[in-house]
Amino acid sequence: MNPDHKVENSDAIDSTRQERSESATFESATQESDERKRDEEARQAVAKMFEEHRERLLRMIEVRLQPELRRRVDANDVLQDSFLEAFRQLRTGVSAPKISEIVWLRLIVNQQLVAIYRRYHGAQKRNVAREMSIYEGRTSADPSATSIFLVGNLTSPSVAARRLELTIKIRECLEKLSPTDREILSLRHFEQLSNRETAEELKIEPNVASVMYLRALKKFRDILKAEKLDEAFDY
Q: What's the pLDDT score for residue 123?
């Protein structure tokens, strides 16, 4: 074989290898650029959702986190962990289901609360299960936390002097309700969900959610009236 042909073949092979290397480098850079773009789009989408629903999500955490855990867990930390998980789901292609944004975000926050309960209760997993709502996999509104929230919203001087007493009484009133009634009241009244959002979260029809709420509200009002607390708490 002509030596010149060997050189030419060698040059051609080297040129082909270089072209392939440059093509692979270009494809890799393009892929990284696309990934960065998707990451930024996901981050912006999640940030926008959390900014819009931040107050209601914080309210959810305050109502559903047990008082003893509220002293050890910062609600803003729970929200930050939830943000990261929402970002992870969008970033990896696990898009939000076809439900309201607030309901999807609440599902993620609920996952963080369940993890917190299990982490702090450790081996007492049966106790953790009792803290769950009758709706499987969801944390329940805690009567103690809810009573603290309710009394905390009252600002009259007479209430301030009786705050602890009223907190205990309200907790006892809430405990007289069934878990279902407490749940629907918390979602609609304390956590500020609409009837449609409540129905989505509980996986029931909106008309059923509306009837459940009105019945629970009447029961709670009757209990407050029987305890002579209806004037202090106008619901």
A: 46
Element (H, E) at 102: helix 101-121
What is the distance between the alpha carbons of residues 193 and 184, in angstroms, rounded to a whole number?
10
Higher-pLDDT residue of 210 and 156 is 210
State which of 112, 140, 168 marks the end of a domain. 140
Q: Which CATH number do you get for residue 191?
A: 1.10.10.10
Tell me which DSSP letter residue 176 carries. Answer: T
Q: What angle do CA 163, 57, 154 make, to 5 degrees?
A: 20
Longest CA span, the chain:
110
Number of structural domains, the chain? 2
Q: How confident is the model at residue 218 (pLDDT cuts 50, 70, 90)?
A: very high
The answer to whether 28 and 20 have CB atoms below 8 angstroms apart is: no
Could you list the residue range(s) of the whole structural domain that residue 122 is in?
Answer: 23-140
- Tell whether pTM > 0.70: yes
